[in-house]
Specification:
alpha+beta; Dipeptide-binding Protein, domain 3; single chain; 12-stranded mixed β-sheet; 24% helix; D-Maltodextrin-Binding Protein, domain 2
């Protein structure tokens, strides 16, 4: 049995009565950097979507700020055999419309999450091994898997649960319009103004600890200066993604508190390896190149050697990061302490390019987001400059708002592009399956593998790790799989992000390694 934790809701932008002191506030306003792609809680595993859904929907499990698993809609779980898990569900839980939560809702939700159209971050990898969900009784289910799945609750356990009565015909648009916004979470949906805010109210019938706030308003302020100004003026109570230039300023103010933690989010560079011709690759003169150089390991390694990760962290991020050489940081299963960030080596990069047949380089365009994480557009510009110094022709650096950029990256419209992945799990398994495993829609692997990297040796080691119940052996296999992909330059890890939040005095943020700017991690000073 697992110990219960309090759930207070995800505070995205909560309306605060400015005349009230924080200790008496009944409303909370959180300034978010990025808007969700959709209100559909099963639309995407991207952080901006999860951060909105988490306020209103529950999953079978949840994670605390240190990423330790806690019970949610599931009270306990145990394997009956290597391919069968029995899960006891929480009794007495009601959806926001007053209907009862049962095992049928879990079975329905796991089935629907397998294929939600047009997702920029599909959940297919979370349910890929689920063969069948058997409803034993109203509050007992058995999940049957195709293969042994020791980390089952790290995957389907995270799927947000919606009522089965919504049926197979429910669409993402039904959620966006508010018609289907029915969860079991601490807060109930009130309204959404696209591009501006989402507003929700406390759920009086919530199964957990009574919600702390009367209303929560998530306001979306993509511009970092606007978020800072909103906090300083008292228009919001909490902001995320403080621009590096403001951290020192905020830390000196007596009317504000700053909170930080090194997250599990890896920011990395992806390179199109699935096509013989890539859309933004040219020759040295800017003409389309009929051969895709990114398919050559030597070229990918050359790009990695051109990147000065230390400089990015120190100068672009003002120290708000940690150079990375793999997908997960120390402390997570599958971390390999012998894998270090690639050293900056322009001479070595030029030698590799020459060996690959590109002594005079080739042309590329760097794509990135401009509001997903602090100084992301500046980082894309820095990457472009580094590639130029390495002898490549940089045809452009194009950055876009994340809710435009992420779907286009998933649609494979780019050649060289930065992206990120936040590991909310006990090990690197989910990250490796989603980001680096060979893309297979039917099997649910590689759902976030936007570059279409594929390596059979990596896939085999990952398959063995995913079926291994002994934790030490599993982590060893995950580390070995990671080494194969990193030495093959499947992606180029750049840095793990250091997260910063700032809040009005009296508002307390429990810094979440999983990045949630959520009422679940926000309280008031006593």
């Amino acid at each position: 049995m697992f110990s219960m934790i309090a759930s207070r809701a995800l505070g995205l932008l909560v309306v605060v009565t400015m005349a009230a002191s924080p200790a008496r506030a009944t409303d909370l306003i959180i300034g978010r950097a990025t808007e969700q792609n959709a209100l559909d809680p099963q639309f995407s595993d991207l952080g901006n979507d999860v951060a909105t859904a988490e306020n209103m929907f529950d999953a079978m499990i949840r994670f605390d700020s240190k990423l330790r698993i806690q019970p949610g809609l599931a009270l306990s779980w145990k394997p009956l055999d290597p391919m069968t898990w029995e899960i006891r569900l929480r009794p007495g839980v009601k959806f926001h419309d007053g209907s009862d939560f049962t095992g049928e809702d879990v079975a329905y939700s796991l089935k629907r999450a397998r294929n939600v159209p047009n997702s920029p971050g599909p959940l297919a990898s979370f349910v890929r091994q689920v063969k069948d969900t058997e409803v034993v009784d109203g509050h007992t289910i058995r999940i049957h898997t195709d293969v042994p799945t020791p980390l089952l609750m790290d995957m389907p356990g995270r799927i947000f649960i919606i009522p089965a009565r919504l049926g197979p015909q429910v669409t993402t648009e039904d959620f966006n319009a508010g018609r289907a916004m029915i969860g079991t979470g601490a807060y109930r949906f009130l309204k959404a103004l696209p591009g501006d805010r989402v507003v929700m109210e406390a759920n009086p019938g919530y199964w957990g600890e009574k919600p702390l706030f009367k209303t929560i308003t998530l306001r979306f302020l993509a511009n970092a200066a606007s978020r800072s100004a909103a906090l300083l003026s008292g228009d919001v109570d909490v902001i995320e993604q403080i621009p590096p230039s403001d951290i020192g300023l905020f830390q000196k103010r007596r009317d504000l508190s700053v909170f930080s933690v090194v997250s599990t989010r890896i920011v990395y560079l992806a390179m199109d390896q699935g096509r013989d011709e890539s859309p933004f690759i040219t020759d040295k003169d800017g003409n389309p190149l009929k051969v895709n150089p990114l398919k050559d390991r030597r070229v990918r390694l050359a790009l990695s050697k051109m990147i000065n990760r230390k400089m990015i962290v120190e100068r672009v991020l003002a120290g708000a990061g940690e150079p990375a050489g793999q997908l997960v940081p120390e402390g997570m299963g599958g971390y390999d302490p012998s894998l270090h960030p690639m050293a900056f080596d322009l001479a070595g990069a030029r030698r590799l390019l020459a060996e690959a047949g590109y002594p005079h380089g080739f042309g590329l365009t760097v794509h990135g987001s401009n509001n997903r994480f602090p100084n992301d557009s500046q980082m894309a510009q820095a990457l472009g400059q580094m590639f130029s110094r390495g002898g490549l022709r940089v045809n452009g650096v194009d950055v876009l708002p994340y809710n435009v950029y992420a779907p286009q990256a998933t649609q494979r419209k780019y050649s060289v592009f930065d992206f990120s992945y936040g590991s909310i799990a006990s090990s690197s398994l989910n990250a490796l399956v989603g980001v680096l495993a060979s893309y297979d829609a039917a099997a649910g692997t590689g759902s976030l593998n936007r570059a279409r990297y594929s390596n059979p040796q990596f896939d085999e080691k990952l398959r063995r790790a995913a079926s291994e119940f002994d934790e030490a052996t599993r982590n060893k296999l995950l580390g070995e799989a990671t080494r194969v992909a990193i030495e093959d330059a499947g992606i180029l890890p750049l840095y793990w992000q250091r997260l910063y939040w700032a809040a009005r005095k009296g508002v307390v943020v429990d810094p979440d390694r999983g990045e949630a700017t959520s009422a679940h991690f926000i309280s008031l000073e006593k």
